[in-house]
Amino acid sequence: MNELVEKISPPLSIFPQRKFLPIKFKDRTAVEKNRAGFAKIERFIKFYKPEVRLFNGPANDGNLGEPMDLGVSNYAPTSEKRVVAFFVKFMDKMKDHKYVKIEFIRDGFPDASVIEKEGNLYSRKYVEFEFKASKFREHIKKKDHRTMKCDYFVMGK
Asked: Does 106 share its domain with 149?
């Protein structure tokens, strides 16, 4: 702050004689600061550090799907993560299945576990999400995946 003030021409002193004088601002009176109050303000200004923003670049608006109003998003899914988001949003509206809870979503096969209601009974079902159907073939090729239980594949495309 001092550096900015020093660059002003003609010179400007914010606190003449290191004293904050009474002023009137928007019909409210500011009271005079004593030496201790002024010292607090001075310390605050001296040690103030602006917020560091890690991501200052331009927005990444790429990789958006076809524009459409889907409630939870304005664009069709373009990744597995967005397929998961749509599943979560619409799982209670699926006609053939009544999913009532998601037990977990994780990285790994299968991606999720859901609780499905069948009549008066509930059962655990395992779900794998993929954006493209071609990814399904990769799971079939992996021997360890063929030995794991997976009830449903949910695909975005």
From this structure: yes
Q: Which amino acid is at 50?
A: P
Strands 112-118 and 98-105: antiparallel
Is residue 64, in this structure, part of any structural domain at all? no
pLDDT surpassing 70 at residue 96: yes
DSSP 28-84: EEEPPP-HHHHHHHHHHHHH--PPPPS--S-----S---B---SS-SB---SHHHHH
Q: Would strands 152-155 and 121-130 be described as parallel, antiparallel, or unpaired?
A: parallel
DSSP state of 156: -
Structural domains counted in the chain: 2
Query: Which structural domain range is residue 16 located in?
Result: 2-47
Residue 119 carries which DSSP code?
Answer: T
Sign of CA dihedral 72, 78, 81, 86: positive
Mean pLDDT of 119-136: 89
One domain for residues 84 and 43? no
What is the pTM (predicted TM-score) of this model?
A: 0.58
